[in-house]
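wait is this the right file?? whatever heres the structure
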C-alpha cells in the first residue's frame, strides 16, 4: 500500500508541476559550481537569493541531496575514503545546510553499498583474508563503526540476504566441504555474526541443500558409506531442525534396508499374532493390507475385497482376515509387479491378486520380490565362510549365451530364471555344467517333480 501511495504522489507531482525536475537540476548545478568556486566562502542562502527563477523549498531539499549523492559517489569511487575525503563529507553538508541526520543516512547508505560490493568480491573464494578484512574495516571506520558493529547493523537492516549470500557462495558447486564451512563460520564470527545467527538465517536454504544431496544419493537406489557420512555431517554442521533430521535419517535407513533386501539379507521378525506359521518358517514382513481378489463367474468377473494382514515368510505369502484367509507358495507365482502401495501377483491359470498396503512403503514389495527370487534360487543371501547358492555373474553370462536367452525346455523368452540342475540343497554347485536357464513355468514343473 505504501508503494502505491508513493507512486500516486510522484505521478500527480509530475502532472501538476512538470517543470520541477528542471528547477531541481538547475539548483543542483548552481550548488556544485558554488562549492567548487567559493569553497569555504560558499553561502547557500546568498546563492539562493541570486537564483533567477522561482523555486520551492522542496526543490532545494532535493537539490541538496542530489549534490551530496554525486559527491559521495565520486569520493567513494575507489571503494574507500581517505582522511581528507572524510573531512570533505563533513564540510559539504554543513555548507549545504543539510540536517545532520539526512547527511548521516546518506553516508551510511553509500558505505553499505560499498561494503556489500567489497564483501561480495572478497567472498568469491569463500574466505575472508586479512587484506580483505582490512578493506572492510576501513569502510566501516569511515562512518565511525567497528567492522563487527557495522556488519551487525548491516545484517539487522538488510535481513537474511546478507548471511544467505555467504552460504550460497559456499555451496554454489552443489557441495560443501568441512573446510568451506569452517571458512564461512570464521568469516561470520569475524564480522560479529554468531553461529546461531548464521544458522537461523540460512535454515530454509540449508534444508533445501541437504534435500538435494539426499536426492543425489538416492538416484541409483543405493547409498554409499561416503554419501551417508556426508549427509550425517551436514545434519550436524548446519544445525538442521529435529523433524527434518528424523526424515533424512529415516530415508537413509530405508535405503540401507533396501540394499540389504536386494542383496538377499531380509529382516527376520517374530511370529505375528493370529498368524499360523510353520516350524522353522522365517517371517520377513507383516503389515495391515487389503486383498482384492477377482472371481470369474458366469455372470462376469466379481472383485472381492478383504481387510486383514499380509505376512511374507521365506516360502509363502499369507493373508489373514476374518472374512478370508489364504497362503500362496512363492514357487506357484508366474509373475508379479508392484510399488510402494500395492503389488499384484499372478498365479498360472488364475486372475491377478492385488495386495494393497495401508502404509505406503517400498519395503513390502522389495521383500516380496527378494523372497520370491530366493525361493526360486535366483537370489540367495550370502553368508561369509559358507557356500552360497548365488550364481556368480560370469557363470550367468556364459549360461545365458549357451541357451541364447531362452528356456532350455520350451524355448520361451519370458519369466526366465537361472536354475540349479542338481538343487543346491542336494549338493549341486554353481558351475556352468550345473546351471541352466528355465522359464518360471518350466521351473515350477521341475519343482513339482523333485
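ok assuming it is, sequence goes like this
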Amino acid at each position: 500500500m505504501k508503494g502505491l501511495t508513493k507512486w500516486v504522489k510522484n505521478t500527480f507531482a509530475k502532472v501538476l508541476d512538470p517543470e520541477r525536475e528542471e528547477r531541481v537540476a538547475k539548483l543542483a548545478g548552481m550548488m556544485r559550481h558554488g562549492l567548487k568556486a567559493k569553497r569555504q566562502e560558499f553561502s547557500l542562502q546568498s546563492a539562493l537569493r541570486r537564483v533567477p527563477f522561482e523555486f520551492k523549498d522542496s526543490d532545494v531539499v532535493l537539490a541538496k541531496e542530489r549534490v551530496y549523492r554525486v559527491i559521495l559517489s565520486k569520493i567513494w569511487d575507489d571503494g574507500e575514503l581517505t582522511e581528507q575525503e572524510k573531512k570533505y563529507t563533513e564540510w559539504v553538508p554543513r555548507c549545504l545546510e543539510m540536517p545532520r541526520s539526512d547527511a548521516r543516512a546518506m553516508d551510511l547508505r553509500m558505505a553499505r553499498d560499498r561494503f556489500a560490493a567489497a564483501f561480495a568480491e572478497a567472498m568469491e573464494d569463500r574466505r575472508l583474508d586479512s587484506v580483505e578484512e582490512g578493506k572492510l574495516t576501513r569502510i566501516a571506520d569511515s562512518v565511525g563503526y567497528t567492522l563487527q558493529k557495522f556488519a551487525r547493523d548491516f545484517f539487522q537492516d538488510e535481513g537474511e540476504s546478507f548471511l544467505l549470500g555467504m552460504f550460497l557462495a559456499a555451496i554454489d558447486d552443489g557441495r560443501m566441504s568441512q573446510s568451506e564451512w569452517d571458512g564461512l563460520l570464521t568469516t561470520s564470527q569475524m564480522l560479529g555474526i554468531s553461529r546461531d545467527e548464521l544458522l537461523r538465517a540460512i535454515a530454509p536454504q540449508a534444508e533445501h541443500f541437504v534435500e538435494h544431496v539426499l536426492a543425489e544419493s538416492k538416484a541409483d537406489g543405493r547409498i554409499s558409506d561416503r554419501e551417508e557420512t556426508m549427509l550425517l555431517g551436514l545434519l550436524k554442521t548446519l544445525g538442521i531442525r529435529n523433524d527434518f533430521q528424523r526424515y533424512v535419517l529415516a530415508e537413509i535407513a530405508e535405503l540401507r534396508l533396501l540394499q540389504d533386501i536386494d542383496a538377499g539379507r531380509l529382516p527376520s521378525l517374530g511370529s505375528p499374532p493370529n498368524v499360523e506359521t510353520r516350524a522353522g518358517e522365517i517371517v520377513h514382513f507383516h503389515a495391515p493390507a487389503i486383498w482384492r481378489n477377482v472371481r470369474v463367474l458366469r455372470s462376469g468377473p466379481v472383485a472381492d475385497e478383504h481387510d486383514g494382514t499380509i505376512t511374507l515368510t521365506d516360502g509363502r505369502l499369507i493373508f489373514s482376515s476374518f472374512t478370508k484367509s489364504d497362503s500362496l507358495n512363492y514357487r506357484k507365482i508366474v509373475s508379479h509387479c508392484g510399488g510402494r502401495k500395492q503389488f499384484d501377483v499372478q498365479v498360472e491359470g488364475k486372475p491377478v491378486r492385488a495386495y494393497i498396503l495401508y502404509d505406503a512403503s517400498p519395503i513390502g514389495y522389495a521383500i516380496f520380490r527378494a523372497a520370491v527370487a530366493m525361493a526360486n534360487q535366483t537370489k540367495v543371501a550370502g553368508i561369509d565362510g559358507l557356500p552360497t547358492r548365488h550364481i556368480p555373474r560370469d557363470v550367468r553370462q556364459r549360461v545365458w549365451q549357451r541357451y541364447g536367452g531362452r528356456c532350455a525346455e520350451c524355448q520361451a523368452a519370458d519369466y526366465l530364471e537361472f536354475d540349479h540342475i542338481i538343487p543346491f540343497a542336494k549338493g549341486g554347485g554353481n558351475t556352468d555344467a550345473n546351471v541352466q536357464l528355465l522359464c518360471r513355468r518350466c521351473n515350477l514343473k521341475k519343482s513339482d517333480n523333485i
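Residues 380-387 have pLDDT under 50 and may be disordered. so i think its the right one actually
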